[in-house]
Amino acid sequence: HLVLDAANGAGSGLADEILETLGADVTSIASTPDGTNINLNVGAASPQKLAQAVLRLGADGGLALDGDADRAVLIDEKGRILDGDDLLLAWAKNLHNRGRLPDNKIVATVMSNFGLETGLAAEGIDLVRCSVGDRAVWETMVRCGATLGGEQSGHIICSHLSVTGDGLLTGTQILALAAKSGRPLSELCNLQRLPQVLINVKVGRSRPFEEIPEVRNLLQSIEASLMGTGRVLLRYSGTEPLARVMLEGENEAQINALAEELAEAIKRALPE
After folding, report:
1. Domain boundaries, the chain
2. What pTM did the predictor assign?
């Protein structure tokens, strides 16, 4: 039994028919587009209602598409949201076990959780990171010869099957893995996520972080203190006067403190 959230978008009326043809018992929500309700508090970007429906109906899982149906997020039988990182790990492990992962590597963006990197490493799989965006993912896949890549948002490309993201294709592939293994989604998708903190800092202007001595030195110190058990990412927003400070690590209190320290250094160096 599967609950489908079509985000009142392109997948409405089609995705449920395909899933039923494949043998699923489908309950649909958010599948009545009226021209104004696409992605409105539903879909892959807002899967909370889907998670509630899975629990309420006692379903085996849920599949959420976004408005144009190129992204997918799943819900396991416990109501837990499975994003692109969860799906990439499960898919990569399956391809690796079947000898269908060239050079034992996949592509994900700088926004994917460090837990994906460690989970892949435990299986002997390398993670190649790239900038944000499906175009960057595909270009990096082509350049490094990877056949699987994607984003935390649920936009995933598997070149065995397609050269672009397809939410329904992604969803059916993961659901097929669960069905063939006889395991629930909660066991199939077992990513151990590291705590993450993100701070947005308003800045007066953009300047390469490596050109700011205080920020550069602090960044090097933080990376040394994490000792390979986490990571730090600094980048500027492409649409707003913001610097984004992101830290991941095993100790949540530690990364919160380090992120605040780094954010304050950026404020001093680049005042509004």
Report:
1. 2-81, 84-188, 196-269
2. 0.93
